[in-house]
Each structure stands twice: as structure tokens, then as C-alpha cells.
Amino acid sequence: MTKVEYKHTEIAVKKQLGQNFLTDRNITRKIVRLSGAEPEEHILEIGPGFGALTKEIIEICPSFTVVEKDPKLAAFIRTEYPQLNVIEADFLKIDLEAVAGGRKLRILGNIPYSITSPILFRLLENRHCFMHATLMMQHEVAMRIVAVPSTKEYGILAVQLQAFFEVSYGFKVGRKVFKPQPGVDSAVITITPKEQVPLSDPEGFSHFVRCAFHQRRKTLLNNLKESYNLDAVPAEVLKLRAEALTIEEFFILFKEMKPKILS
User: Fold this and answer.
1) Same domain, 106 and 145
2) Is residue 126 part of an annotated ligand binding site?
3) How many domains does the chain have?
4) What pLDDT, on a 0 to 100 scale, did the predictor assign at position 20?
5) CB–CB of 159/153 below 8 Å?
6) Is 27 within 8 Å of 173 (Cβ atoms)?
7) Is 24 one of the annotated binding-site residues?
8) Is 256 annotated to bind ligand?
9) Residue where a domain stops, chosen among 176, 193, 210
10) What pLDDT score was predicted for residue 12?
């Protein structure tokens, strides 16, 4: 069992929580600069751990909110930074609207590899609650989020997130600046909710994107014909694969189709 100790607090690293602690202060400073955080903003940090990023955020904003699931780490943050509002809970289960309290959040976090996608989709569902998020994650996942059409990385994650957010790749973070050292590199990205999205049915669009990419090697016709009426869609479009479409083309295609009513 791997153990990490810092300032007389020792924890057994929990793989299920994806605990890899950042040790390079240059990286944490760079993350906070990239975030654009301002002193009077409503800031939320996801998973502060031993406070590597927390320490840098405090330099700008002396009082903010952190969410930490591990009881020992939550106690450490309360002791080390008594001015902070510590929510000891699973980020995936907290009420983000209640945390926001009518003020849009600026979110920062070194998010666990094991639950990166659930966190991203949680943010997608609650995009009305925050103005901007700066997140460190597995490099491979970051590349899938910022991917462009007709690449192997471009898929459901890219389309779902780019449809509703402006996404930007910040910088790569090598594995050697973490303890314990993970087997992969990380990257920092930013996501900003779009002010206008040309969709009246976001949930329906999400289902449509999943269907379109159901089997990557198949055409849109083969992936969509069981679930949608495709009569209004040009034949040349249906011959394409989902990975060939831009976000705007996904919007257009979604408007041209009607779901089949299954008896």
C-alpha cells in the first residue's frame, strides 16, 4: 500500500479516488494563472488533496470553497486553511446550484483520472452554474476533449463538450511531478460554457451523438437508421462517418432528423 505524508498527516493512497498529489509549485502557479481567477470571484476547487493548488489560489482569493471526499484530507485542509469553506463530500453528489448560490463559480481542480468523464458530464449538466473551469486530467483524455474532426481522438467526448463549451488545451504536465507517480502524463485544459447554443433539446442531442458514434467504423446511415427518420437528410451526408462532422454540422443534422416512435 502506497502512503503519502505531508506536514504530519499521512494517508494511504486510495486508487479508487485516483489520488496523485502534485508536488511542483511552478505547475500550480501556472494553473492558477491560466484560470484567470480574480480576488472577488466565487471559486470552487475540486479535490484539494494536501493543498498544492489551494495554496496558490489563496494568494489571489483568500476565501473560497473546496470539495474533498477523503475525510483525512478534508480535516487537513480545515486545519491548514481555516478560512476556507470545506465541503467533505463526493463532487459527483453535491448540489452545484446550491454551492453556487446564485453566483457563477470559477472552478479549478486536479481531477482524479478514474472519474474524469463523470466529472466532465456533471459539469456539462450544471453548465449554468459556472463561468469557467481549469482542470488537470490524464493527457489522453485532454486530447480527446480538444480533438478536431477526422482524427482518431474525435468522438463522443469531444462533440458533447465542444457543443456546449469553448474548450482549450493549456499545457502538458509530466508524470514525474506527482506523488505517487502515475503511469501516464497529464494536461491542463480550460472549458467555458457557451452563451448561445442552437439547441432546443440538449438531452436529445446528447442521445443523438451517442447513436452517431455507436460503431465508429459504420456510416451515419447504419448508426442512426434504427432510431431516427432520415428522410430529410441528404444521401451524401448519410454516407459519412460521425467523425467527419464538425460541431456545426452535428447541429444541422440533428435538426434535420426526427426520432422514430417505437411501438
Assistant:
1) yes
2) no
3) 2
4) 77
5) no
6) yes
7) no
8) no
9) 193
10) 45
DSSP assignment string, the chain: --EEEETTEEEE--GGGT--EE--HHHHHHHHHHHT--TTSEEEEE--TTTHHHHHHHHH-SS-EEEE--HHHHHHHHHH-TTSEEEES-GGGS-HHHHHTTS-EEEEEE--GGGHHHHHHHHHHTGGGEEEEEEEEEHHHHHHHS--TTSTT-SHHHHHHHHHEEEEEEEEE-GGGEESPPSS-EEEEEEEE-S----S-HHHHHHHHHHHTSSTTS-HHHHHTTTEE-TTS-HHHHTS-GGG--HHHHHHHHHH-EE----
Based on the fold, state whether residues 82 and 189 are members of the same structural domain. Answer: yes
Residue 38 has pLDDT above 90, yes or no: yes
Q: Is residue 262 part of a domain?
A: no
Task: Provide the whole-model pTM.
Answer: 0.90
Q: What is the pLDDT of residue 21?
A: 77
Q: Is 248 known as a binding-site position?
A: no
For residue 125, give its domain range.
3-193
- Of 139, 162, 136, the C-alpha closest to 149 is 162
Is 185 known as a binding-site position?
no
Which CATH number is 219's domain given?
Answer: 1.10.8.100
8 Å CB contact between 73 and 107: no
Residue 263 lies in a domain: no
Rounded mean pLDDT, 161-186: 93
- pLDDT tens for 219-243 read 999 999 999 999 999 999 999 999 9
Examine the domain organization and report whether 184 and 231 are in the same domain.
no
> How much is the pLDDT for 257?
87
Task: Answer yes or no: do 110 and 176 share one domain.
Answer: yes
26 in a labelled binding site: no
Q: For residue 261, is it within any domain? A: no
pLDDT in tens, 97-108: 999 999 999 999
**In a shared domain, residues 27 and 154:** yes
